[in-house]
Amino acid sequence: MLPIKLILKTDIKQNEEITKWYESLKSYLDVGTQWEWLSCFTEEFRLDAVEVALVKHPDWNISDLQKMMLSNLQGKGHFCRLHNSKNSDLNLFKNFTFPVIHLTKSDLRHKAREYGFYDLLELTWFCHKPSDEGLPCELFHPCQRAKESGFEYNFKFDSNLLSNRFKRIAKGTAKKICRTFISN
């Protein structure tokens, strides 16, 4: 086994062309910030087939970005990647493959059981705004999608944690409102 090489996000070199693609896509689609630095990483280290585990969502719950990507993908499994898109902004994803984009989370759960790695699937993470205790927030889109896809076992609901989260949000909002009125 090769040794682990730790690379901090702050050490990844910026790439003007990638930033141009990212900024352009961001101007008309909801694109996460991770795509810019991950793309810069793949360019810097000359990686051209980094697997990304984007999964299939129901048609009613699919982002505009994923719709655009799906219409420009070719191949299945490890060979599924963007090809010859007329939209040059999609070059942001040129160094990635999308081996599970045609599978739902439910499909992945069945395959994990079938092939004996279900215990690893239970360790996957999806929440973008976890509580201070490390539990999924259950409030935002990734958590909602996970619950709708049958991953409710990942949620260990604690009404006190959720209540504390709302108190922090409310307190922060109240401070912003007060600052606005005081400064005007």
Total number of domains: 2
Give the SSE string: HHEHEEEHHHH
Radius of gyration from CA coordinates: 20 Å
Strand order of the largest sheet: 1-4
Q: Span between N and C termini?
A: 61 Å
Helical amount: 40-55%
Give a brief rundown of this model.
With 184 residues, the chain is mainly α. It has helices at residues 16-26, 34-44, 64-70, 105-115, 118-121, 141-148, 159-183; strands spanning 50-51, 73-74, 81-82, 96-97.
Can you describe what's shown?
There is one protein chain. 42% of the residues lie in helices and 4% in strands. The protein is mainly α and 184 residues long. The protein folds into 2 domains: 9-103, no CATH class; 105-184, no CATH class. The strands form 2 sheets. The chain has a two-stranded parallel sheet. The chain starts with 15 loop residues before the first helix and ends with a helix.
How are the elements arranged and paired?
Elements: H1 16-26, H2 34-44, E1 50-51, H3 64-70, E2 73-74, E3 81-82, E4 96-97, H4 105-115, H5 118-121, H6 141-148, H7 159-183
What distinguishing features does this structure have?
184 residues, mainly alpha, 2 domains, two-stranded parallel sheet, two-stranded antiparallel sheet, 7 helices, 4 strands, 42% helix, 4% strand, globular
